[in-house]
Amino acid sequence: MRKYYPVAALLILLAAIALSASIVTTNANALPTFTLAQKGIGPCVTCHGMAATHDNPKHAAVYPTCSNCHLSGIATPPTPAACAKCHGGPSAILASANHAAQGCGTTPGCHGVPVPTPITTAVSLKVAPTSIKFKKTVKATGIASPAADLAGVKVVLKAEIKVGSAWKAAKAGTATVSAIGAYTWTYKPAKKGTYRMTASIVATADYKGSKSPPRPFKVK
Question: Using alpha carbons only, what angle is made at residue 176 by residues 170 and 181, rounded to the nearest 5 degrees?
Fold first, then answer.
């Protein structure tokens, strides 16, 4: 039967919680984990619990030697690799009933599953007419590609007016990309002046953002 060292256990707990903030704030997609690390206590312990992990009878033979699990010292939580060396490796662990039920082996980015590469996008913009009378409207049209992936996505349109040497926000709106990638937006300027407009697609986990060159027009 293993001996219980309350002071040592407390030190391990405090050291683990005091881990570098970089471990906590690192993008989950970059962590070589089976489950997300939270509060610096290590990926496996996140779900299994620190006390339950340390007090598991099956661990009694290895815990007297902390380095068997804490490969980089007790201030650093055991990595999945440390657990995997005794538990059959990542494939065996993720295939176990409890892990499979939780989707541990199918969550992209944080359980060893590759993160899909975001799709590269492009958006064009045409503003017509390029010169209008006050109280008239201009029409913004363009194509967002690839259409098959962006159909239904919102294109963000921004109109700016030139004030002195600076550009000031005048109006913003959105237009929905059609099944063939086209979009349309109309704008009625509130005052005379020199304007420009841009169209953009906001980046998401599925696709990269893109932005058109600014298109100028005037209101007389």
Answer: 120
46-68: pLDDT as tens digits: 667 777 777 777 776 666 677 77
Decide: 10 and 24 in contact? Cβ < 8 Å.
Answer: no
**For the chain, what are the domain ranges?**
6-101, 122-219
Coil vs helix vs strand at 13:
helix
Contact present, 174 and 155 (Cβ < 8 Å): yes
Contacts of 107 (CB under 8 A, 6+ apart): 113
In the CATH scheme, what architecture does the domain 122-219 have? Answer: Sandwich (2.60)
Task: Give pTM, 2 decimals.
Answer: 0.54
Contact 80, 31 (CB under 8 A): no
